[in-house]
Amino acid sequence: MAMPAPRPSFWKWYVCGLLLLATTINYMDRQTLSNAAVRVTREFGLSQEQYGDLELAFGWAFAAGSLVFGFLADRFRVYWLYPIVLAGWSLMGIASAHTRDYPELMICRVLLGFFEAGHWPCALKTTFALLRPEDRTMGNSVLQSGASIGAVVTPPIMIWLMTEDVSSWRLAFQVIGAAGLVWVVLWFASIRRMELDVVAPMEKAASEGLLGILLGRRFWALAALIFGAQTCWHLFRVWLPKFMQEGRGYSETEALAFNSAYYIGTDIGCFAAGIISLWLARRFGMTAHNARRLVYAGACVLTSFSLLVLWLPKGWALMAAILVVGAGALALFPCYYSFVQELSDRHVGRLTGLLSTWVWAVSSPMHKLFGRLVDETKSFDLGMAMAGLAPWLGVLAMWLLWDRPGVKTKPQSGG
């Protein structure tokens, strides 16, 4: 049997483009609810706290799915697992369009969250297999930027498909859900079954234990880091359309148009994180790790612009401040993913899944608390301002817990 022809050098970046598309579809399916939040709460007669409960249920299901698919990604070929999870969440997005009441919608959000969780272990296993360490932050930036693209294109689609009929949000759920089934075809047409298999070096394979990593300081540094990053990103993702409409008086069309602009800003920040990290390593000879840490801290400075929400009324200054927050919020994630890939060669999927389980379990209740705060204060401002400060927890955790030059610590495998 003839050997398949070797892939050209640009093929690995083409696959990163497929991952970008998968993330785009992931966020399109996720963003349909927040973009239609006002209509959905009106149709089903929900309070702000009940709407927060939908996000809480989604988050806890995502946590469970992260654990399941994280372990499966290390055990089974990503070639098969990836399209299964993508088809699963796409079908749940389509099913959401046919819900008749709040409990049915809740079930669909739970299953959507469960299957969407499989994207990240599969995607990080793919970039880990394809890219060199110094290229991974850039590759992860390409992967993560799909979140922005999905969030940018979803509002225009929603505006185009929704009419004055309150229930017209349902068609958008069906159209966007169907896009994932097309991706499955592209995946099988682009990847060979054995191409993403990774064999760990034998000396590492013998010594690298998952339990030792989980008990190590580095793992818990990342657990704190992703909690801060996740809290900032998802509170703005979920509540920004409501903040713009109900908190500052923008119309639905204006709020959705700005939502697209916001995610263009996040995409710029995400790509900038990868480019700057690569530039610091090549231009100044910084280690890939130190470059990521510097980029992460810079992103935290940008998210801190959220404090201006406390004083800024409706207008251009408010929108500019939120755009800066968005650029910083998504720039955090390529750095985080690359930190996870530093922990281990053998357990990328498991560690990604375990950290995702942890962070979705502990951060998802923030939506319920946020909704309760809005119900009690009749204002979104305090919650939005505090969300932008959360990523600084990661800077503190990395300084305290991750090994630093000149500090003697017990060696940890996989670093």
Explain what the structure shows:
It is a single chain. 78% of the residues lie in helices and 0% in strands. The protein is mainly alpha-helical and 415 residues long. It has a single domain (19-194, 210-401), classed as Growth Hormone, Chain: A (Up-down Bundle). Helix 6 runs antiparallel to helix 15 and helix 7 (133-161) runs antiparallel to helix 8 (169-190). The protein is globular and about 55 Å long. It starts with 10 loop residues before the first helix and ends in a 14-residue tail after the last helix. The model is unreliable at 199-207 and 405-415 (pLDDT under 50).
List the secondary-structure elements in sequence, H or E. HHHHHHHHHHHHHHHHHH
Looking at the structure, what is the overall shape? globular
Largest sheet report: none
The CATH superfamily bears the name MFS general substrate transporter like domains
The CATH topology is given as: Growth Hormone, Chain: A
Task: Describe how the helices and strands are arranged.
Elements: H1 11-35, H2 37-44, H3 48-75, H4 78-96, H5 102-116, H6 119-130, H7 133-161, H8 169-190, H9 202-207, H10 210-214, H11 217-247, H12 252-284, H13 288-303, H14 316-343, H15 348-363, H16 365-377, H17 381-387, H18 392-401
